[in-house]
Amino acid sequence: MSHFTSSHQINPISVKLLNRNQVIANYSGSVFINQNHVLDNVLYIPNFTFNLLSVAKLIDNLSCVIVFYSNGCHIKDKSSLKMIASVAMQGRLYILRVLSYQNLQIKSVKSPHITNIVNFIASDLETLWHFRLGHVSNKSSDVIKNKFPFLKYNKSFICDICHLAKQKRLSFPLSVSKSKKCFDLIHVDVWGPYSSSSIHGYKYFFTMVDDYSRYTWVFPLKQKSKVVKILEDFVVFIRTQFETTTKVIRSDNGTEFFMTNFFSNK
Hints:
Blueprint: E1 4-16, E2 22-34, E3 37-44, H1 55-62, E4 64-69, E5 72-77, E6 83-90, E7 93-95, E8 105-110, E9 115-120, H2 125-132, H3 138-147, H4 160-166, E10 185-191, E11 204-210, E12 216-221, H5 227-242, E13 248-250, H6 260-265
Parallel strand pairs: 10-13
Antiparallel strand pairs: 1-2, 2-3, 4-5, 5-6, 6-7, 8-9, 10-11, 11-12
């Protein structure tokens, strides 16, 4: 009964349990999921030791969608897909943690102009700190927890917001192709600019990877325009030192690799 925000007496309703026993519900009421979502017509059964939530009833009552994972599920608003609650799995059961209504703190804040009534309704603390700290990674959460042991977080929690916000592009499929010998295919890319220059004034670095051996060359750069000279010298270096030629150079089509005349001559 401590979970009910309001309740009223109803005509007795017989509820059949899984063990075929029948119990009687004489009261019905409303229960908070969070500060914005309330379940209505919840039956109160005094001699029943578990709080059970029907998925079908939940979807109908809150107009929500539920996404199930191997270690829990997320309850989301149907139209905005905003998170309503995160549910963890324990012992093959999905456990939704709801703070009892008696523990909800209601504070009044008075000013010369207005009076605000603020409801503080705690959600699952294991995921709450993940949101409060700006969707920090598990590694960062470990560091924070070592200094502040009272913070709680769930390593198995799956955050959809992190997946969508931190993933810059779709994952590339795994490649099974491989060159037949060294220098048949060279991968090239430029990283930068960095906000702070190095001691020697470098703000970029140019990376080349041999597809066959995976041997990697890294060249620090002050300007991206230096890529042309380095790449031309590298092709000559391969020919003179290894008596072979570079067949393919693969890039991301960055403007620094627009060396049409050079590639045509080779």
